[in-house]
Q: What sequence folds into this?
């Protein structure tokens, strides 16, 4: 069978099987418990009814995720260059980076609200906190993972520190950077959604997927909750898709992870 | 202006009582005094740990000497632009195309782009890889990568090239071919070479002079001129004179290793 066709067909078949299983499972439940797992018609109905609300909420959450994610990328790249340039900085700052990752977001959320107010500012900060760590750890690791002989080559040519950083370390770190970027791209939309749930606001109609889920939950609209979850997944796919595309554009010509298979 | 007579030309490399020690053990190089004249092709051969590679690192300024003096073209190491280094691995930058790799060191020296491109094209022509200029390193074979690494060194137009077992990872056929190419290139560009190798045959084929090192502490125990005439080519490897020299150098190297007890130490 054509392998390219198979690559498309397999996931599609799997999805079809999953949906059939879902429908069958729905039928197996006793009528009084069927609300727990709406059938496909119910799900489509929920999308019809709340589609506009969900789209707007996804837009808000997506923008907030992008804001926190973008901030994390900028800060992480600057911090990584700093950390990779100085062992002193590494020794001094690494423990605090770990602590940044360990901060229980739920606990500091109320504090954040007091500091910067509910809604967007808080959501962006929480998203930043969640997506920053994988980026800074991977990028720093990449900047430091240059082959010894390549460093010698640059030393022998009496390259300046800036030349060694931007002509050697930064390009060598790109694969590591994209590994961190992928992880953060998965975390950012989930982080933004969760943040919206905790620190979001309904005022001004600026509710994201978290607040939307909260409202559906309060009204016991189970099919709408499923629809919200699926919307959140789609948002995550969009993030990961864009990042994977960027990684491909940047790396596929030279990096081994994109080399053609031996078949 | 008076042309200097042959005897008054200062050597390209001058080492005096050169010593290198790491930590407190025996020195890796102990009081090496040695001159290398411009135009020589010198191979360094000897048991591992005898300081051959350390000598190259000292010459290139990558590591400082513990004692003694070393100059290249009359200047302290680390201050001269006259030398190039070819590593054991090709050490190409995988994200750059072949031509860009060849230009890397010129770029670090802030050479204008037009001159960089001219030199890179010329160097790639010397190693016969002009058609691969726009390929990425991963698309090349091991031998081709090593030739790019060589081209990168040649593009510096150095007076001295240090080669640290550059062909050790290649298969024998490729290794012989690339050695012949290296000599052919040298016919056209007169640079001096210091070549570290483990292969006696390769050393005899390439060199005008072979230094046999002993270890613990690292020192030169034989300084042998190789009188086979250049240009040398594939036929040289069949010549009785060549085979005789390979046998002679092998015997001396073996004697050095046995006297050091590095082969037949009691278990």
A:
């Amino acid at each position: 069978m054509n392998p390219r066709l198979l690559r498309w067909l397999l996931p599609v078949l799997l999805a079809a099987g999953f949906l059939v299983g879902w429908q069958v499972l729905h039928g197996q439940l006793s009528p009084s418990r069927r609300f727990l797992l709406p059938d496909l018609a119910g799900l489509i109905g929920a999308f019809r009814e709340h589609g506009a609300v969900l789209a707007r909420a996804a837009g808000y959450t997506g923008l907030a995720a992008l804001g926190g994610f973008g901030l994390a990328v900028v800060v992480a790249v600057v911090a990584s260059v700093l950390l990779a340039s100085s062992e002193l900085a590494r020794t001094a700052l690494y423990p605090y980076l770990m602590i940044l990752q360990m901060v229980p977001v739920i606990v500091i959320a109320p504090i954040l609200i007091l500091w910067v107010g509910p809604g967007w500012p808080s959501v962006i900060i929480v998203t930043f906190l969640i997506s920053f760590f994988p980026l800074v750890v991977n990028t720093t690791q990449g900047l430091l993972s240059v082959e010894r002989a390549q460093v010698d080559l640059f030393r022998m040519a009496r390259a300046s520190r800036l030349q060694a950083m931007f002509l050697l370390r930064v390009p060598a770190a790109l694969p590591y950077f994209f590994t961190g970027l992928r992880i953060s791209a998965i975390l950012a939309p989930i982080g933004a959604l969760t943040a919206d749930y905790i620190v979001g606001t309904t005022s001004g109609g600026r509710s994201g997927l978290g607040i939307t889920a909260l409202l559906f939950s309060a009204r016991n609209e189970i099919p709408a909750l499923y629809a919200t979850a699926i919307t959140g997944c789609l948002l995550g796919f969009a993030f990961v898709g864009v990042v994977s595309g960027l990684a491909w554009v940047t790396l596929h010509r030279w990096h081994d992870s994109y080399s053609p298979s031996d078949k | 202006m008076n042309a200097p007579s042959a005897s008054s030309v200062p050597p390209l490399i001058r080492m005096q009582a050169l010593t290198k020690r790491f930590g407190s053990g025996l020195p890796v190089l102990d009081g090496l005094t040695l001159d290398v004249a411009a135009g020589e092709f010198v191979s360094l051969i000897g048991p591992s740990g005898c300081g051959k590679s350390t000598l190259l690192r000292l010459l290139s300024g990558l590591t400082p000497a513990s004692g003694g003096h070393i100059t290249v073209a009359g200047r302290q190491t680390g201050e001269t632009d006259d030398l190039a280094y070819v590593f054991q691995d090709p050490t190409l930058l995988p994200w750059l195309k072949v031509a860009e790799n060849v230009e890397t060191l010129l770029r670090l020296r802030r050479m204008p782009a037009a001159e960089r491109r001219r030199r890179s094209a010329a160097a790639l022509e010397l190693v016969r890889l002009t058609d691969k200029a726009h390929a990425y390193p991963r698309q090349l074979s091991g031998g081709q990568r090593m030739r790019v690494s060589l081209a990168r060194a040649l593009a510096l137009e150095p007076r001295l090239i240090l080669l640290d077992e550059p062909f050790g990872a290649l298969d024998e056929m490729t290794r012989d071919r690339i050695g012949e190419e290296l000599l052919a290139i040298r016919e056209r560009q007169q640079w001096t070479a210091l070549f570290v190798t483990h292969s006696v045959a390769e050393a005899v084929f390439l060199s005008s002079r072979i230094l046999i090192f002993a270890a613990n502490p690292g020192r030169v125990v034989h300084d042998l001129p190789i009188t086979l005439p250049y240009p040398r080519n594939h036929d040289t490897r069949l010549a009785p004179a060549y085979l005789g020299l390979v046998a002679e150098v092998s015997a001396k190297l073996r004697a050095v290793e046995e006297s050091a007890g590095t082969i037949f130490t009691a278990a």
Observations:
- The helical segments of chain B are 52-60, 98-108, 113-126, 142-154, 172-188, 200-206, 240-259.
- The radius of gyration of chain B is 19 Å.
